[in-house]
Each structure stands twice: as C-alpha cells, then as structure tokens.
Amino acid sequence: MRLRFSAMVLFLLLGACAEPPPEAYVTRGGGQAGQPAGNDSRGDACTVQAGRQPPADRPVIRAQETYCGGWSQPAARIIHLRGATGAADLDALAASGLWRSWLDLRVACGAPVATTVAGGAAARLLSCTRRSGGWPHVALVIAGAEGPVVADGVATATPVIERLALGRQVAGDAGSRSAAMQLAVTRLAADAFRTGDVGRYEELMRLGADLNQTENYTAAEEAYRAALAVQERVLGRDNPNIVGALLGLAVNISNQQRPREAQILLDRAGQLAPQAADVIAPARYLHYTGLATMNRGDAAAAIPILEQAETAYRAQVPQEALEDTNVAGIVADPIAQSAILGLAEAKRNRALALTRAGRSAEATALVNEARTLLRRAGLEATITIGRALRTQAGAEARRGRTEAAARLMEQAANRFAVAVPGERPEAITLFLAGSQRLLTGRRAEALSAFRAGAAIVRARQVALPVEAVIPYLDALNAEAAASPAQDQALRAEMFAAAQLAQRGSTARFVQQASARVGAAGGDTRVAEAVRGLQEADRALRTLFNERDVALGGGNAELDARINAAQQRRNEAESEVAAAAPGYRQLLLTAVDTPAVARVLAPDEALVTMLLGPRHGYVMAIRRGTVTAVRTTLSEAEANQRVQRLRASIELNAQGQVPVFDVAEARALHAALLAPLAAATEGAATLIVAPDGALLSLPFGLLLAGPADPAALGRAPFLIRRHAIVHVPSPQALATLRAAPGGSAAPLPYIGFGDFVPPTPAQLARSFPADRCGEDARLAQGLGRLPGTRTEVQAARQLTGSAPDAVLLGGDFTAAKLRQARLGQYRILHLATHALLAGELNCLPEPTILLSAPAGAADANAAFMRASEVLNIQMDADLVILSACNTGGAGGAGGEALSGLARAFFYAGARGLLITHWAVDDGAAALTVADAIRRQQGGASSAAALRGAQLLLLDEAGGRLPANFAHPYYWAPFALIGDGRRAPARNASVNDAPRSPIATVPAGDTAGASRL
C-alpha cells in the first residue's frame, strides 16, 4: 500500500474514483459512435471506440474501449503498445509495471497463466475478481501484430478482447481455437451473467451512495436492496463479495430505526467480510456495526466498536497519510482513498458517540483529527466539512455552549447548501441551528431557520426526526401566545410543521402508493415522466458532488454542465406536471389546513398529534379552524401507557381475558383528546392520525370518563361518541380522498378462509433445524380456524355474492389468490392467521398464512409475504384483514401500519379493516358480518364498523355473553383509511335492524383466538 504524489496523479485519476466504490477503470461512454466488435460470450453485441489511455510501461499506439449489450460503461479496455512480444516481455508486463499496478488497484488477480488466444498468438491470462462487487474479471497480455497488447474487462468480454487485440475477426476453425477461452470457460459457465448485470449493480450502488449522502435512507434502502438482488442472483447468497451491498442495505435500514432487520444483515456481512476481494470490507463491517449500535441508542457500546473500525481502516492507510505533515496532492490509490475516508468518518462517528455518551469534551479533538487527515490527503470535500461542523456543534451543545453550537450549526448548514443544496442534510442542520437559537432566546432567528429548513423538507418530500421538529412547534406556540391577532395563522403553521416529522417509512409508503392510484392510474406516460424527473434529480446531485471534490482551478465547464442539468430537471418537472397535474401535490409530505379542510365533511373532525422526548402537541381541524395544544405526554410515557393498556386487553399466558385497565384508557384520552373537546364536540366521525406507539391502539376503546371494569357495557368509550377512522398522516387522508369516486369493480365480494395448516414435515423443510427449528415449532401452533368458514360465508350471503366468491380450506392457496383477478371485487376478505415481521426469526417479512398446495414438498407456498402482495392489482373499497395483528405495533414505536397493511394500500385498497390483537372467532365473525350488512345498507365503512361494535357492547349480557363488553371482543378491529364513504351523511347506528346475531351459531360465540 502506498501514496502516489506526482505529475501522474491527474493522469491516474482519469480512471479512479474520489470515494468508494473504486470502479475507476470505467468511464462514461456514448461520446462518439462505436464500430461493431462482434458478440461477447453471452451473445450480446459489442461496439468499440477510442478510449482513454491508462498508465503503461511502453509507448501507446492506441487505446480502445468496448461496450456490450447496451451498457453505458466499458466492458473492457484494450491498450496496444509498441515493443517486443517475446515470452519474457509478456511475463514482465503481466507480473509488474505501471499497467499491472493500475490493474491491482481495482481487481484481485491470480498468477499469470501462459496460454494462447484465437489464431494461436501467445498470451498470459490473469483470472481476477473485482474488488467492489466481486464480479469475475479477466486481464490478458497478448502478443499482437504491432506489439504487446494489455487488456482487462468483464469476464464475458474475453472473446471481444481477443478479436480487438489481433485487429481482425478470427475464423472459428479448430486451428484458431482460443486456449485462453478454454481456461475461462468453466468460470464463465458457472457465473451466468451479462455485462448489463455488472452495469446495473454499479449504477444501483452509486445511486444508493448518492441517496445515503443526502440522507434519503428509504430510497437508499431500495437501491441497495436491488443491487444485492442482482449480486445474489448471479454470484449466490454466500459469495463473500456481496458484502458491500449487504452493508449498504444494513446501515440504511438501521438509519430508519429497524434494528432487528439491520442486525440480520450485519451478521451475514460479518461472516463474509474477511473473505471479500475488497480489503476494506472488514473495517467497513466494524464501522457500520458501530453505527447500528449507536442507532439502537447505545452510544457507549458503539465507542469501542468504532475504535476497532479505526484500527482496521488504519491498517490499509499508507504511512505517509498518517504522518503529521502537510502533503499536497491526491491519494490516487482507490484502496487508500477508501481507507482514509473510512478512517475519517469512523473518527467523526466516534466523536458523535462520545457526545451522546456524555463525553463531549473528547469529541472536538477527534473531529479535528478527522478533518486534518482528509486535508492532508486532499479529500476533505465540502460535505465532509459540513458533517464535521455539525458533529462539533453537537458536542458544544452537550457542554451547554449554546451560542457556539448555534454558530457552528449555521456554518454547517452553509456548507451543505453548497455540497447538497436543497437536500435533507441542509434542512436538518437548519432545524438544529434553529433549536440552538431558540435556547438563546432569539425566537425570530430560530423561526427564520426553521422556516428555511421546512421549505426544503416540503420541496424534496423528505422527513425529519420528531425531536428536531418539536422545537419548531415550541417557537410557534410561544409566538402565537405573544401575538393573538396572528393566532390562527400560527396554529395553521403548527399543523403543517408537525407533518414534517415521520417515524419510519410508513407514511412515505402510503403516500407513494396513494399517488400511484390517484395520479398515474396505470398511465405509462405518467410513469415515464416521473422516472425522468427522478433521474434528472440524481444527475444534478452527481454533478454537485463532482464540483465538490474537483481539483483546484477554474470550474467554468463543470458549472456549465450543472446549469444544463438544472434546465433538464426543470423541463422534466414540467413534463410531470403536464402528464399528471396532481403528482407534485400528491407526493408532498405535508398538507396545509385548507387542503385538509376541503376533504373533511361538515360532521367530521381530524385529530393529529406529535409526541417528543419531553412533551408533545395535539391538534384538530374542524370547519377550517385549527386547534393546537401542548400536552405533557411524552413519547416514552405514551409507550409505557400503551403497553400497560394492551396488556389489559390481550389474552394472558393462561389464555384468559385480563381486567381492562380503565385508568390507562382514561389517562390517554385526557392527554390526547380532552384538550381538543371543544373542537371535536358533535363530530359524527373522528379521523385520527396517531403517533408512535399510539398507532397500535384502536382509539375507540379510550375512555372519556370514569368506568367500572365490572360494568364495561355502560362505560363511556370513545366509540359511543364518534365513528372512528385511523390514518397514518393527514396527508395520507388527503391523497386517499383525492382519487375521484369509489371502486369501479363490477363484483361486490370475494372471501378466503379456513386455511389448511402445513404439516410438521413441510414446516421442517421450510425451516431447517440448524437455523430455524424454533420457527417450525412456533408455526405448528398456528392451527386451523374453522370459525372463519362461517365468517366468510355470512359475508358472502350479506353481499349477495355467488357461491364461487368464497374459497375455503384447500382452495385458500396463493395460486388461487393470484388467479382470482382481485381487481374485479369491491371487498376482499382474508380470514386467517397473520404474522408480523420478526415473529418468526427466519421470516423477516409480514406474512399471511394460506393453505399449502396439495402434495407440496415444503411450506413455502403457505406463507404469502408482503412483497408478494405488492404485485397484486386491485380496485377495492375495503380489504378486510380479519387476522391476528395485521395492524399491530410491528416495529419500533408502533409504526403506523404493519407491512401487510402497507402492501394492500400499495396494491390499490382505499380502506383496510385490520385487527390489533388475536381475535375471538365468534366475536370477529359477528363484527365483520354486521359491519358488512350495515355497509351494504348504505352506511360508510366507519359508521358500519361503529354500529357493529356498539351491537356487541349493547347486547353483552343480553343476547350475547356478558364478557363481550370487554374491548378484547369488540375493539380489535380498526378502520385504516376510508373504505367506502357514504355519499351524503353517516348512517346512524340505528338505521338498520339489529338482527345479524342469528348468522353466528351459538357455539362460535366463544370461538378460538387467531394467534
């Protein structure tokens, strides 16, 4: 490992990257028309054109680049040299020298093997693996007609390299057979990939890095996941060289506060990293493990892990870069670049961990060490300066130096404004600066910073942490108190500001799905326009990054390219606006008060809330007026209260229904809804956008007053005052209601139930004993649910559907579900078990249990994962997920909806009727049947569910068992989204006769729980 500083630095940088991944031997193609060069080993047509000249030990006659299969980057580079072509010359070129050193920076090669190419020319073949991505790579030194030819490229390009090296098309007779190809053929056959696979992988990895840099972790996750899928398909799940995509995926999932998923990926990466071709992989694994540990809230434990990462990075850094001297120049070695950048970032991250662990005095020196290291290597980009300043500001804030912290945050925001203008890093830093200014008592300056950051968040459709937004609300609340004349304007700003905070990816998922339903409607022109806008955004970010790391001197040419890219982006946005005028509005992460007021009926009220580390805010919109009140309820307290309340609802270890905790149900109502009583009084429908752990509660069970646990039938549950609709966010409500009308599907209903569980033998094959044996045991406990047969049959009769609209038992399979053309039905009903992500360790996705196909070897087809639901196309007013926990707290903080619910929104549902805990078969059948009956009679989905729930409450101790008054029986179902909306008014609970009890056999009223 060494530093190279010389006049050759710029020359080398023609093929080197300024930061990982170091795929520097490729450059952008398309600058000139190529000439045909035949096909590669996979049959893809290739072209050749003049290329850039890499370092070489002899005079260069010409340099060529070949492009195959439409890939926009070179599949191979061929350099024709002058000089002798004897055996010793070929051996020397293959073993050492400038070209070989340049090659070793990017690929790991075995020893040269003497061979011949087509036509019998002598050659040396090096079988290599690319350090980034692990793709098979070849390098050849060939005795050409004009002198030696050195070449390297994707392994599938070998025949093209040979033809170009000899300067002619070679006949395919026996005498011209390529021995080099014979040596490579086994590997090429085993690795059935095309040049385009490599190109797609590298493009996805670059995209993931770009998105991570702008702190768009949700989109970065998608890019890295797609890159990993390409690698796993070609190289296999156990290939060590998939570690880069694994780590990129893991850290972006961790950044979204999904620790369990991230840890599974990190564990895989930890096993693979030591064998990877990328020598930086073990250090990066330690680094990202430290970041994930810090994201879990254990900063103290992250510190020693990050120290280990620093040690591992330092082992790959040339000694010159570690010496206390000022060195002018750029590190040309991509491995050294990666190591230096990694070491500096590990130091900065350790400074952040020290700050969070209460050791902020040590953090500033560590940040300065990181910046000095980057400066000496010429790698301190503007964005890294911004990050360092932000970390340093955090350390100052922890030490109580508020003024210094505010100044540093403002400096950091200015740096981000240059490096990634108008992106999340600039926005979050402005919010942090505003928080510090507010602490100094300079509210006007704080509001200025908050508003500037909010404008970026809205423009880029990104989100901020709750703790960053709460100070903005504090400032507005104080301003409203001081300026009564501006009260409504400031309260409206508070409502909009609260929506800038999001927990996890749920709201974004639903918004994107809603935009697809409401704006695109399957229109390919819209899809192409949106894709063009996204590509233009990414291209512009790439150019800004290029300017940020450009070497000294004028940047007029680069600035001109940036101006042109900005123009292209503006044109792309205009194309989107023309194709789908509502697209931009549908994707906004926040909506204003008028937008919400327009979609609310006169007898509806919207309630939303945001809970921070120490306090929160509750807000309501009714008839265009905003009420915003500070509440002392914090996120942590809400978590504890929700846990205690749910523990009093769900079955205990003995399978018994516990005593309902009326005190907790009343306390939550007092903190969340009582302050908004004047705004919600008399509303027929209450639309609730909960926050955090509150998302795992159906709000209808909250108590508006005192209650006797022994007489719950008379308790003042919230459901007695309002029909209740739950939404992930106010914006989701606006987008779901933006689509005109309801379902256009011709058929009323299709239902599935009474699944046949997999056999123990099938489960054993799907869950190997060495890794997933406990999962197999747990899955065996998910028994048959005969009550669901009655439930779906009753629903079919109530909707007047044909007998074939119900699939039961062995017909409840994934194949039958996919074949059912679900887009024809206005109601889809799935009555079965469901599993949340992580309930089974080897089944990380949320899943619905179906019947395994007859004679199936394993149980795989019995588990329908959320990712499979995404591929379903439907046009449903309502999807009934009558299964355990389909809307439960399936992630940190009770994240909005489970993955199953999100998947159905994406597939085209307008509303979901979900369950929050294991439901009683009899109560569930009665609730669903009565709700459908009321809906068929003209009630909205919300009013229909309310009527069914009140039926159980009112008839408990009469025509129904007395224990049905307990929320365990009547409250598990919750409506997410609208479902069907009544055209004029909400139907009253008394609008239809109460006669559906007879549809549920008496023996089913104490039915089994769906676990």
Outline the fold blueprint.
Layout: H1 8-13, E1 35-39, E2 45-50, E3 60-68, E4 76-81, H2 87-95, H3 98-104, E5 107-109, E6 113-116, E7 122-130, E8 136-143, E9 148-154, H4 158-166, H5 179-190, H6 195-213, H7 217-235, H8 243-254, H9 259-272, H10 281-295, H11 299-314, H12 319-322, H13 334-356, H14 360-376, H15 382-398, H16 402-419, H17 424-439, H18 443-460, H19 466-482, H20 487-498, H21 506-520, H22 524-549, H23 556-579, H24 583-587, H25 593-599, E10 604-611, E11 616-622, E12 625-631, H26 635-647, H27 662-672, H28 677-680, E13 685-689, E14 723-726, H29 730-736, E15 747-755, H30 760-766, H31 769-780, H32 787-799, E16 806-809, H33 814-819, E17 825-831, E18 834-835, E19 847-849, E20 863-865, H34 866-869, E21 878-882, H35 899-907, E22 911-915, H36 921-936, H37 941-955, H38 967-970, E23 973-977
Helix pairs in contact: 6-7, 7-8, 8-9, 8-10, 9-10, 10-11, 10-13, 11-13, 13-14, 13-15, 14-15, 15-16, 16-17, 17-18, 17-19, 18-19, 19-20, 21-29, 21-35, 22-23, 26-27, 30-31, 32-36, 36-37
